[in-house]
Amino acid sequence: MTSSTQSKGTPLVTPDQLKSWIIYEDEGIIVVNKPGWLVCHPSKCGPWSSLVSATRELLQLETIFLVGRLDRETSGVILMAKDQPNGRKWQKALEQKLVKRTYLTILEGELKEKTDVNGFIGNDPDSPVFVKQRVTVNTRKSKKSSTSFIPLLSRAGYTLASVVTKTGRKHQIRLHAQSIGVPLVGEKLYGRDESYYLKFCESGWNPSWMEQLRMDRQALHARRFGFFGEGLLFEAEIPSDFLNFLTFEMKVKEEELSFFLKNANQMEAEQMDIDLGCKNSLID
């Protein structure tokens, strides 16, 4: 790779790009497939430098309400409400765990069986990176966390896995994967060497890192978001960089991937223990 969107600067969104990312839109909400190079929240680099601000500009709205954020390098489904009532409705459903999100990831190492990581997360005082978290003991400041990694395919030293979370802590999936010895492909902070993250913050992406990291961003994609029983459920297509890794590094064929994703849908539903009762009244 000779160039990368993971630069030190802030790439700008164009109106046509943003339109091409739209998965669903109605009078109350807009749902997009965020790329893995774009921040969610407004930045100092202008209205077209973040997803929220760019969407507000495109729709000519004074305010827009983000329902659940993603890290910049995490691609996938993001829902935004166009007004406060819809924002409150979806945010309440998310907080009550009526609305859920599932992920796809590519892990370094071959994970052979479903692995649940349960415990507590807190700041990492041993790291020079201020925002870094770690698995820790139960303290006044630590937060309970729970992640399930469901392997779909292990091949060539890597694992394609579905991820289901019961909590939504900062960097939860990334640090939980590291804690069980299978960090995400492309992981700069929770990988084999956090100095990649420090160098990236200082100078931006260095193409020579591809040999070690294999992707220029963390291999994490928020594939589905919504009601997994009855109600609106949105799915984001897998991005090209993710697909390229599966195709060229893991030799996954298109028909194989379709089979694995169907299996993921079923296993995710079983993992979440869906109650198919009247959980969706908030969105009627």
Describe the protein's topology.
Blueprint: H1 15-21, E1 22-25, E2 29-34, H2 51-59, E3 65-67, E4 75-81, H3 84-95, E5 100-108, E6 115-123, E7 133-136, E8 143-155, E9 158-165, H4 172-179, H5 195-203, H6 210-213, E10 220-226, E11 233-235, H7 240-248, H8 254-272
Proportion of helical residues:
25-40%
**Name given to the CATH architecture of the largest domain:** 2-Layer Sandwich
The tally of structural domains comes to 2
Net shape: globular
CATH topology of the largest domain: Pseudouridine synthase
Mean pLDDT: 92
Largest sheet: 11 strands, mixed
Q: Count the DSSP helices.
A: 8
- Which structural class do the helices and strands define? alpha+beta
Distance between the termini: 47 Å
The CATH class name of the largest domain reads: Alpha Beta
Strand content: 25-35%
The rounded Rg comes to 19 Å
DSSP, total strands: 11
Order of helices and strands: HEEHEEHEEEEEHHHEEHH
Unreliable residue stretches: 274-284
Characterization of this structure:
The protein is α+β, with helices and mostly antiparallel strands and 284 residues long. It folds into 2 domains: 10-96, Pseudouridine synthase; 100-274, Pseudouridine synthase, CATH 3.30.2350. It is 27% helix and 26% strand. It is built from 8 helices and 11 strands. It has helices at 15-21, 51-59, 84-95, 172-179, 195-203, 210-213, 240-248, 254-272, and strands at residues 22-25, 29-34, 65-67, 75-81, 100-108, 115-123, 133-136, 143-155, 158-165, 220-226, 233-235. Strands 1, 2, 3, 4, 5, 6, 7, 8, 9, 10 and 11 form an 11-stranded mixed sheet that branches. Strand 1 and strand 2 (29-34) form a beta hairpin. The longest helix is centred in the last third of the chain and has 19 residues, at 254-272.
